[in-house]
Amino acid sequence: MILGIFEDEKVGNFYPLTYTRPVYELRTGLYTLRERVLSSLSAQECRLYMRAYLSKAYLAETRCKVNELPHDDILLVNGRLLFDARAAELVRRALKAAGDVAFLKDGDLVVAKLGPRSLEGILGPHTGWTVSKESLTSLKEVALTLEGSSVTLLEYPWQLIARNKELLKEDYIASGLKGELEGKVSLYGERRWISVGEGSRVEDFTVLDARRGPIVMGKGVEIQSGTRIEGPTYIGDGSVVVGGSLIRAGSNIGPGCRIGGEVKNSIVHGNSNKAHEGFLGEAYVGEWVNLGALTTNSDLKNTYGSVKMYVGGRKMDTGLKKLGCLIGDMAKTSIGTLIYTGKKIGVASHLYGVVAEDVASFVIYAKSVNGKVVELEVDEAIKIQRRTCKSRGRELRPEEEELIRTVYELTRAERKGVPQERFKLP
User: Fold this and answer.
1) What is the CATH class of 158-415?
2) Closest C-alpha to 256, from 237, 242, 243, 234
3) What pLDDT digit, counting tens, does each position of 43-75 carry?
4) 227, 208 in Cβ contact below 8 A?
5) So where are the chain's domains?
6) Which residue has the higher pLDDT, 197 or 42?
């Protein structure tokens, strides 16, 4: 059976995080949503379906076929599916069914087993390589449709943060990870909850508190002296935790990051920096982000009420008492930036001072400093990203530059009324 993972119309609920990546490349616990599917299902071949503009940049990073329709039957899995035992049971039911079958949840396609003709009706160039409610109308005419309401189909980005802490623990238990721990390290809890990857180094006088969950370090990780790490926490390959840091429960750090100050239950994608003092809590941070010294976000309202967040122009009650910010790829903050509870920061934007509202993509936001928000020109954003890549010993690829230009155009409506002028500090 060929396995296909797809996006649907609700990818927009996860902006700005999904402007630059398929929804199934978002992560929670030890894995991305895609990795959860691939690790659970055995397939002779995997195909990934994504918005067309993402495919060039993504092809350079995957061995899977991208946006290609097969000539044989395919097992389709929604990229928003949080794959677990219930999802696996749904897949088994689909594979046992005679003929084409699809499982829906609240009108959204979750899992389907389809032949080529049925597949072409819902997915292809004519749908922009995403599955829409409109295209599902044709599916109901050719396939048996059943309810799959028992599974978890993620609707909003804050669900990734809310589930992160428990999944870090569950994933570790299932993984069988282990590793040696040496040096003068203070360990609270059982040694079995600590996993240190090959080439990683934990300096003397580090405190590891694994009483509430595992502490997992990838390969080549450096933990500098004076750091306290509380489990459950994951620190990805090649990342550095700066001396004196407080890494609290639920911290989920991607590869190639530099992390300092205080971090709590936050997901950070690769090659991002928070190397100085400041607080990052209950947040989701994209790739190639740089948080300046003393940058701090709020994750709790003074009223202790549930946090509201705008999704697609609608104000949504998240149901969470604690929720920080969502920060898109390539965003930058200046020294002393303060971000209010539940705010979204767009792709490649630069922040100065106090941020009390959502920030569009490709802008320079400095309302509390000089009273202005101005547009960041796309050529300038590319120049900055090229420099950022060089700081990590790599070059910005042509397809990555093309992606930045495309996202700039896609987010133009966010910047309606934002002037194009030279940014100046007082």
Assistant:
1) mainly beta
2) 237
3) 888 999 999 999 999 987 777 899 999 999 999
4) no
5) 2-147, 158-415
6) 197
Question: pLDDT averaged over the chain?
Answer: 94
Which residue, chain included where needed, has tokens 């995403």?
130
Alpha-carbon separation of residue 85 from 36, 156, 327 (angstroms): 11, 21, 31
Are 45 and 37 within 8 A, CB to CB?
no
The pLDDT tens digits of the residues spanning 165-187 come to 999 999 999 998 876 777 789 99
Q: Distance (Å, rounded) from C-alpha 387 to C-alpha 74? A: 42
Other beta carbons within 10 Å of 395: 9
* Predicted TM-score (pTM) of this structure: 0.95
Taken in order 9, 11, 16, 19, the sign of the CA dihedral is negative
2-147 and 158-415, same CATH topology: no
CATH superfamily of 2-147: Spore Coat Polysaccharide Biosynthesis Protein SpsA; Chain A (3.90.550.10)
Sequence letter at residue 63: R
Number of helices (H), then strands (E), belonging to the chain: the values are 8, 38
| Residue 185: Cβ within 10 Å count | 16
Q: How many CB atoms lie within 10 A of CB 401?
A: 17
**Could you write out the DSSP letters of every residue in 77-134?**
EETTB--SHHHHHHHHHHHHSSS-EEEEETTEEEEEEE-HHHHHHHSSGGGTTSB-HH
